[in-house]
Amino acid sequence: MVYEGKSLSVTMTDGGIAELVFDAPGSVNKFDQQTISELDQANAAIKDNSNIKGVLVRSAKSSFIVGADITEFTDLFSLPEPEVLAWVAKTSQVFDHFEDLPVPTICAINGFALGGGFEMSLACDLRLADETAQVGFPEVSLGLMPGFGGTVRLPRVIGADNALQWMTTGKPRKGQQALAEGAIQGVVAAQQLHEGARTMLLSAINGKLDWQGRREQKKAPLKLNKNEATMSFSTAAAMVAAQAGRHYPAPHKMVETVQKAARSGRNEALKLENEGFVALSRTNACKAQVGIFLADQAVKGKGKKLAKSAARVIRQHAVLGAGIMGGGIAYQGAINGVPTVMRDIAQPALDLGLNEASKILVKGMERGKVDAKKMATTLNNITPTLDLKAIANADLVIEAVVENPKVKAAVLKEAEDTVSEDAIICSNTSTISIDLLAESLRKPERFCGMHFFNPVHKMPLVEVIRGKATSDATIAAVVSATLKMGKTPIVVNDCPGFLVNRVLFPYFAGFSKLVIDGADFTAIDKVMEKVFGWPMGPAYLLDVVGMDTAEHAAGVMSNGIPQRMQKIDNDPVTLLYSSSRLGQKNAKGFYNYGIDKRGRPSKVPADEAYALFASHGGAKREFDTQEIIARVMIPMANEAIRCLEEGIVGSAAEADMALLYGLGFPPFRGGIFRYIETMGLANFVALADKYASLGPIYQISDGVREMAASNKSYFA
C-alpha cells in the first residue's frame, strides 16, 4: 500500500502502475476538504516512490466523482474574501501537484465525472471512459465557475470555443460526444474500462504515447492568434449575453477569465481562475443558486424518507375528469409506467384528455426524447372510460373535475363508494379546502390534496395537502406515488389557497392596486420580467391563468382570509372578467392575442383594457422600478412568512422550492425567503413599513419584526 486514507487509497500493481482509487464513505465520491487533503498526501507518497512508473486513477463506485461537496460552501463562502481565495488557491494547487507527477497518468471514467471530478480527470495526461460516462462542468447552475483548474485545462484540451460552450451551459457530455470533441481519448464497454486504461497507460510508460506533449499543452498559453482570439471571445460573449442575460454573472465571468488567461501559462491562468471563482462566490446569484441546490436536496431527502415509510404500494391510478388537466395527470403516471384509468362522463372530454397525452408524446418524439415504443407503451397505459366501475381496482384516485366544491364533493363520494376500502383518494384542487371536501367522505383519513400545476408535464411541483383528518400513512403513500410520477412533492397543511396560491394572490393584489393607482400594466410586466426576473409579468400571467379562474380563486381567498384578502374595488381582473375578457382562453385580456404577418403568435397590449381601467382608476402615471417591485413583492413575501409562522409549510427551504417549481420564481434570487434574506430582514421590515398604509397585505407580522430585531435567519 503506497497510501491509505478514508476517501482514497494508492496501491501498487503489476508493471509499476500505481492505482489511485476513490472510495469515500457513502454512496458517491465527492471532493470535500478531507478528500482534497488526502489527495495531496497521496500525491506526495506517489512522488516519493521511485518504483512507480505510471498512475491509474479510478473509482470503486458506480460513478467516478460527482463534484465538490456543496454542503461545505455556505460556511466557506461566508469567510472573508482573502480566506476564500487562499482556500481555492491551495485546493487548485493539489490538482497541479498531481498533474506535475514525474510519471504518466490516466483517468478511467465511469458514470459521472462532474465539476471537480472532471477537473481531476483533466489533471491526468490521458482519459478513457466507459459507455456509462458523462463528463462536464455544471458549476454555472450554482452561480459559479470551475475553480480547480477547469477553465485553464479544458480550453487547452478541446479549444476555447468548445470549452466555453461546455462551461457556460453546464450541460454534461456523454462519452462519444466527449470523444468527438477531444476531451477524452477513448470509450470502451464498462467491463473493459480497467484493463483498457492499464493498456493505454502502459503504452505511455513505454513511450508509445506522447503524454509529455499532452501535459505541456495544458500548461501553455492557448494556441490562438490575435484575430482568432477576438473572434472566439466576442462570439462567446454574445452567446452568453443572449442566453444568460444580465442576472447570471457566472457565464460572463467564465468568458472574461478564459480570455484574460489566453496568453498566460498555467500558473498565471490559475490565479485568474481563482480570483474569478472567489468574485462569483460573493454574488447574490451564487448565494441564491447554492441555496436552491441545498434546499432541493433537503426537499428531495424529506420526500424520499417519507416514501420509504409508505406501507401502501400504488400500482394503479385512476384520474376522474379528463380534459387538459386530467389528460396531463394521466400522462404523467403512464409515462412513468403506472397503468391509469382516465374516467369522465362525456366522450369529448375523454378525447381531449387522450389528445393532450398524445400531443405531449408527439412533441417528445420531435425532440428525440421519446421513441415509438415509449409512445405506444405510454398510451397503452391509459384506459379512457365512461364507466365508473372501471376505477374499482385503483390504488390511488386523483379527482380533477371542475373547481366547484359541490361537484368535487359528489365525485369524491362516488369514487369512495366504488374503490376498495384501502384505496387512497386525492383532489387536484387549487383552492378548495381539503377539510371541506373531506366532509363528503366516510373515511377522511385516506383523503388529501394532490395539487398539480399546469402544464402538468412541465411543472415539477405537486403540493400534497394534509387535512386535519389525513393520516400519516396516506401522506407517505401519496408522496411515494408523486415521486414515482417524476414530480417533487412538498407537503403542506390545509388553508385557503394552500401555499403557492395563497402567496400568489397577494402578489396579484399588489399588481391590481398599482394599476388602479395609474400604473401601466405593460410597464409593470416589463419591470417584473426584465429586472426582477419572473418568466412572466403579473398581467401576462393572469392572461395565462384566465380571468375566470383568477376571479374564482380570489373569491375563495377573500372568503378564507377576509382580514387581508378582501376583494378590491374596481379590481382590473374583475373588470376584465365582467367584460368577458378572459385572457388567452378567448384571446383577449390585458393583451390581445393573435397571429402576426409571419404566422407567429402575437401579444399586443389591449386598447380595450386601457379604456376599461381609465374609467375606474386613477390618472395614469409612471412608477419607479423599485417601487413597482416593492409593491408587488412585499405582499407575496408577507404571506409566505405567515405560511411559515402558521405551520402551513414546514421550512423556508420548502417554501422556496415550492415557488421555484410551482411559479417559476427567478432562480438567481433563490426563492422568496432567500430573496428576503438577501435584502436583509431589517431592510425588508423597513421597506414593508414604508408601504404599510396601502393595506393589510403590506403589514408585516410580529414574528418577522422580532426576527429582524434579533438578527435571526430563516435558514438557521
From TrEMBL:
<dbReference type="InterPro" id="IPR050136">
    <property type="entry name" value="FA_oxidation_alpha_subunit"/>
</dbReference>
<dbReference type="GO" id="GO:0008692">
    <property type="term" value="F:3-hydroxybutyryl-CoA epimerase activity"/>
</dbReference>
<keyword id="KW-0511">Multifunctional enzyme</keyword>
<dbReference type="GO" id="GO:0070403">
    <property type="term" value="F:NAD+ binding"/>
</dbReference>
<feature type="domain" description="3-hydroxyacyl-CoA dehydrogenase C-terminal">
    <location>
        <begin position="497"/>
        <end position="593"/>
    </location>
</feature>
<dbReference type="GO" id="GO:0036125">
    <property type="term" value="C:fatty acid beta-oxidation multienzyme complex"/>
</dbReference>
<dbReference type="InterPro" id="IPR006108">
    <property type="entry name" value="3HC_DH_C"/>
</dbReference>
<dbReference type="InterPro" id="IPR001753">
    <property type="entry name" value="Enoyl-CoA_hydra/iso"/>
</dbReference>
<keyword id="KW-0456">Lyase</keyword>
<dbReference type="Pfam" id="PF02737">
    <property type="entry name" value="3HCDH_N"/>
</dbReference>
<dbReference type="InterPro" id="IPR006180">
    <property type="entry name" value="3-OHacyl-CoA_DH_CS"/>
</dbReference>
<keyword id="KW-0560">Oxidoreductase</keyword>
<dbReference type="GO" id="GO:0006635">
    <property type="term" value="P:fatty acid beta-oxidation"/>
</dbReference>
<dbReference type="InterPro" id="IPR036291">
    <property type="entry name" value="NAD(P)-bd_dom_sf"/>
</dbReference>
<dbReference type="GO" id="GO:0004300">
    <property type="term" value="F:enoyl-CoA hydratase activity"/>
</dbReference>
<comment type="similarity">
    <text>In the N-terminal section; belongs to the enoyl-CoA hydratase/isomerase family.</text>
</comment>
<protein>
    <recommendedName>
        <fullName>enoyl-CoA hydratase</fullName>
        <ecNumber>4.2.1.17</ecNumber>
    </recommendedName>
</protein>
<dbReference type="InterPro" id="IPR012799">
    <property type="entry name" value="FadB"/>
</dbReference>
<comment type="pathway">
    <text>Lipid metabolism; fatty acid beta-oxidation.</text>
</comment>
<keyword id="KW-0413">Isomerase</keyword>
<comment type="similarity">
    <text>In the central section; belongs to the 3-hydroxyacyl-CoA dehydrogenase family.</text>
</comment>
<dbReference type="Pfam" id="PF00378">
    <property type="entry name" value="ECH_1"/>
</dbReference>
<dbReference type="InterPro" id="IPR006176">
    <property type="entry name" value="3-OHacyl-CoA_DH_NAD-bd"/>
</dbReference>
<dbReference type="InterPro" id="IPR008927">
    <property type="entry name" value="6-PGluconate_DH-like_C_sf"/>
</dbReference>
<keyword id="KW-0443">Lipid metabolism</keyword>
<feature type="domain" description="3-hydroxyacyl-CoA dehydrogenase NAD binding">
    <location>
        <begin position="318"/>
        <end position="495"/>
    </location>
</feature>
<dbReference type="GO" id="GO:0016509">
    <property type="term" value="F:long-chain (3S)-3-hydroxyacyl-CoA dehydrogenase (NAD+) activity"/>
</dbReference>
<keyword id="KW-0442">Lipid degradation</keyword>
<dbReference type="Pfam" id="PF00725">
    <property type="entry name" value="3HCDH"/>
</dbReference>
<keyword id="KW-0276">Fatty acid metabolism</keyword>
<dbReference type="GO" id="GO:0004165">
    <property type="term" value="F:delta(3)-delta(2)-enoyl-CoA isomerase activity"/>
</dbReference>
<dbReference type="InterPro" id="IPR029045">
    <property type="entry name" value="ClpP/crotonase-like_dom_sf"/>
</dbReference>
<keyword id="KW-0520">NAD</keyword>
